[in-house]
Amino acid sequence: MTELPDWLKTALPAPARHAGLAIARLGSERNLGRGGLKLSSPAFDVGEELDPCFSAEEEDAVAPPLEWNAPPPGAQELVLIVEDGSSKGDEPTCHWLVWGLRGQKGMLLEGEVPPRTGKNSKGNSEWLLPDPPEGETRHYVFQLFATELPLTLMPGASRDDLLASLEGTITGCALMVAPFTGSALDDEDWAEDDV
Questions:
Q1: Which residues pair with 95 in a beta bridge?
Q2: The pLDDT of residue 20
Q3: Does residue 188 fall inside a structural domain?
Q4: Could you report the average pLDDT of every consecutive run of 10 residues in the chain (195 residues)?
Q5: Which of 98, 107, 117, 166 could disulfide-pair with 67, CB 3.0 to 4.6 Å?
Q6: Contact in structure between 77 and 101 (CB atoms under 8 Å)
Q7: What SS3 state is found at 181?
Q8: Does some domain include residue 191?
């Protein structure tokens, strides 16, 4: 496995530096934050733990809300890729592939269905709920890419297909990292609630 470029090492915390992250392949020092492009969430600050309502710990969990400011001029489309930067193996676990977002300032509301989605690491086209083992912290890297060309991919495309279609088209990128630590459900708490 190759190593992350230095510009990306400074942008990511040490536990989230999987060399296979999409931004390592598609991004560049020049494009990171270009034109002030920034990704954020009203539900958590950068580096702040994800709420369990966005994880497998809650029965009705959904994808978190996300916001971004205006991309560099000429951006035709925005693409969002969420991966586990602390994954083991050659490729990081892919949690979400989203494209078809307009090339302008915008947002995805909590649980909103995006215009187009691709297959996550489990082979479905949904937000793959974070589900780390009890006591283990994983670091989820939210990566936003501005493209100079609109994508022609059909919904349900694979991560490989999406990355290949983005090669050489990126005009700007942004990222943020959110950790999440797995916990065990306490059976006694459930029993008390039922009384």
A1: none
A2: 96
A3: no
A4: 86 94 96 96 94 95 97 96 95 97 97 96 96 96 97 95 96 97 63 46
A5: 107
A6: yes
A7: strand
A8: no
Cα–Cα distance, 18 to 40 (Å, whole number): 21
Length of the chain: 195
- Among residues 160, 161, 163, 179, the alpha carbon closest in space to that of 84 is found at 179
Total domains present in the chain:
1
CA neighbor of 26 nearest in space, from 148, 166, 155, 188: 166
Report which residue type is found at 60.
D
3-class secondary structure, 175: strand
pLDDT of residue 116: 96
CB 61 within 8 Å of CB 111? no
Q: Is residue 194 part of a domain?
A: no
User: Residues 4-37: pLDDT tens digits?
Assistant: 999 999 999 999 999 999 999 999 999 999 999 9
Residue 67, domain extent: 6-183
Predicted confidence at residue 117, as pLDDT, reads 97
Q: What token pair was written down for 70?
A: 């205006």
Q: What is the CATH number of the domain that holds 139?
A: 3.90.280.10
Domain membership flag for residue 139: yes
pLDDT given for residue 192 in this prediction? 47
